[in-house]
Amino acid sequence: MWRVVLDNAALTSALLNPTGKPARLLDYAFQGKLRLFTTDRMLTAEGKVLRQKTMRSRHGLSDRDLSGFMADLPVLLCMVEGAGRRGTRGAPGAEIDLLTCATQSRADFLVTSARSSLHNMPQQGTQVVRADQLVRLLDRGA
Fold this sequence. Notes:
Layout lengths: L1 E5 L1 H9 L4 H10 L3 E5 L1 H11 L2 H7 L3 H14 E3 L13 H13 L3 E3 L15 E3 L1 H9 L3
Parallel strand pairs: 1-2, 1-4, 2-3, 4-5
C-alpha cells in the first residue's frame, strides 16, 4: 500500500470537488488502496482555509458541521507526530511541513497541486507528483 502526503491545495480540492482527481485519492484511501498522512499543523492550516468566506460559500457547511468534519479528518488521514519546521533552507513554511511529513511518514508520493520548489528538492525516496498522475498509476494497478 502506497504512503501519500497531499498538499493543502490538493486536499482542499478533494473536499470541494468530489468528482475531481484529488477526491479520487480520498476514495482510494477509503478503499484501503493507499494511506494518507498529515500533521496537526497541516490540518490546522486546512481548517483556516475552509473557514474563509469564499470557501464557505463553496462548501456550504455551518461552523458546527465544519468543526465536526475537521475533527473526523484524522480518521482518514494518518497523523504524523512531531513534524516541525526544520531542515530545508529557503523553502516556505508549508513546503517544509510537507517535506517533514513526507520524510517522517516515509511517503512514496507527495501530491502537489501546483509546480513549486518541491520538485527541485531531494525527497529521500518520495516522488513529487500531481493528483492526476497518481490516479493514473492507481487506475493501472501499478
